[in-house]
Design brief:
With 177 residues, this protein is an alpha+beta fold. It contains 6 helices and 10 strands. The chain has a single domain, classed as 2-Layer Sandwich (Alpha-Beta Plaits), CATH 3.30.70. A 4-stranded mixed sheet has the order 8-1-10-9. Bound molecules: iron/sulfur cluster (3 copies).
Length: 177
């Protein structure tokens, strides 16, 4: 089992429904976000291209945030999902410094917070909140190790990229182009 998220940048309109859904589902406090929208312009006039992306923790295969955590609070859960055990977190922020994606923040209650791939929903057979509300259905979630899964079929049939592959973190959120 290897959970991944696959996001179609050709369909994302940047409406931020995913951001709102995440805040509601996960009680993310005012002023903080587990996911966000990035608009990237590439190329030169007159052939400019814009990619709109919904970004979050990449649930990396080689997560520096886990490797540097002195208490084991940051850990790899089943399916490759990177989680933080709140009770074990001492708020040292080593993981925030280590993450090249700026995916973590200090929750007002003192622990480190970030995207969980909505594992509490996934383990009940539901989709992550952000995926379930997307009005253009540009977000997909599933098991990359199942060749019949939607995510596996999309990644084998469509061009895609991940963010900052040069970091060596092996991010597992993929963007269809
Ligand atoms: Fe850790 Fe950052 Fe990778 Fe998420 S994106 S697993 S917080 S290094
Ligand atoms: Fe681990 Fe918490 Fe320190 Fe992050 S802030 S490295 S999760 S103890
Ligand atoms: Fe938020 Fe869940 Fe989506 Fe992660 S998977 S960005 S926690 S709604």
């Amino acid at each position: 089992m290897r959970y991944v998220m696959v996001i179609d940048t050709k369909r994302c309109v940047g409406c931020m429904d995913c951001v709102v859904a995440c805040k509601t589902e996960n009680n993310v406090p005012e002023g903080y976000n587990r996911d966000w929208i990035t608009e990237e312009v590439r190329g030169k006039n007159p052939t400019l291209q814009m990619e709109i992306r919904s970004e979050r923790c990449n649930h990396c295969d080689r997560p520096p945030c886990v490797y540097c955590c002195p208490t084991g609070a940051s850990h790899i859960h089943e399916g490759g999902v990177v989680l933080v055990t709140h009770e074990k977190c001492i708020g040292c922020k080593a993981c925030i410094a280590a993450c090249p994606y700026d995916a973590r923040f200090v929750h007002p209650e003192g622990y480190i917070d970030k995207c969980t791939f909505c594992i509490h929903r996934v383990e009940q057979g539901l989709k992550p909140a952000c995926v379930s509300v997307c009005p253009t259905h540009c977000m997909h979630f599933g098991d990359l190790e199942d060749p019949q899964s939607e995510v596996a079929r999309l990644l084998s049939s469509r061009a895609h990229h991940s963010l900052l592959p040069q970091t060596g973190c092996q991010p597992h959120v993929f963007y269809l182009t």
